[in-house]
Design goal:
Layout (H helix, E strand, L loop, with lengths): L2 H11 L6 H9 L20 H16 L8
Helix pairs in contact: 1-2, 2-3
Length: 72
C-alpha cells in the first residue's frame, strides 16, 4: 500500500502537462500535519497546501460515502 505513492509520482512525473502542484499532491497526499504518514518526512506548514486540501476532501469523502469495507 505504501508504495503506491512513489509509483504514482513516478507515473505522474512522466506527464509533461501536469503542473508541479499536481506532483506535490501526489507526493504528499499520505502525510499528516503531525508528521505521521508516508513516504516523505514532511509535517505542518512544510506540507504543500494542495496536499492539505486534498486530505480534507478525502476525509470528508470517507465519512460521507459508502465504501467496500464500511457504510457512510
Amino acid at each position: 500500500m505504501e508504495k503506491h505513492v512513489a509509483k504514482g509520482l513516478h507515473l505522474a512525473a512522466r506527464l509533461p502537462f501536469l503542473p508541479s502542484a499536481a506532483l506535490d499532491v501526489t507526493a504528499a497526499h499520505h502525510r499528516h500535519w503531525d508528521g505521521a504518514g508516508y513516504p516523505q518526512e514532511l509535517s505542518g506548514a512544510h506540507l504543500p497546501l494542495s496536499a492539505r486540501i486534498l486530505a480534507v476532501c478525502d476525509v470528508y469523502d470517507a465519512l460521507t460515502s459508502a465504501r467496500a469495507d464500511k457504510r457512510a
